[in-house]
Known about the structure:
Blueprint: E1 6-9, E2 12-15, H1 16-31, H2 47-55, E3 63-64, E4 69-70, E5 78-83, H3 85-92, E6 103-110, E7 117-123, E8 133-139, E9 142-148, H4 151-157
Antiparallel strand pairs: 1-2, 3-5, 4-5, 5-6, 6-7, 7-8, 8-9
Amino acid sequence: MPRAGTHALGGDTIVGMNARAALLxxxxxxxxxxxxxxxxxxxxxxxxxxxxxxxxxxxxxxxSEGAPHPSEGPHFGRVRAYLNxxxxxxLEAGAKRHPAGAVAVKELYGDGDAVKGWAVYxxxxxxxxxxxxxxxxxxxxxxxxxxxxVLLCRSCHFTGRxxxxxxxxxx
Length: 171
């Protein structure tokens, strides 16, 4: 029989309060999702709701490129991409087609150090066609894209893996 203030666990005796606190901390840490895996609030598509979501920075809990870098595509200046857990897992698995719910947010810096806009793409359904993606881009006060299957966006992204051009693995 264990002494007062101790518990018998598998034959080993541990001091009660410290062991209980350590065990609860360990269980809590295992049960909580890692920040990088957190989905965050649902990404809205369309105008004002998406702009508010972006301005709140919800995407910043996702995995991202290490730092802003010169754009390799038509997004002028410096950029930094963030991938939600759905898109990250799909790219990591080498999937040729990404599932509905895959999202990328690219911060647009222009020539400065402050975010001046965003380019966003959201996989709306699992089809392998350009219309399965919603595209949004805004730089400073100018909205360049805000619709499904935008020709301007898909004409560059068609060379990517299911329209995703973000270099993999993330740098």
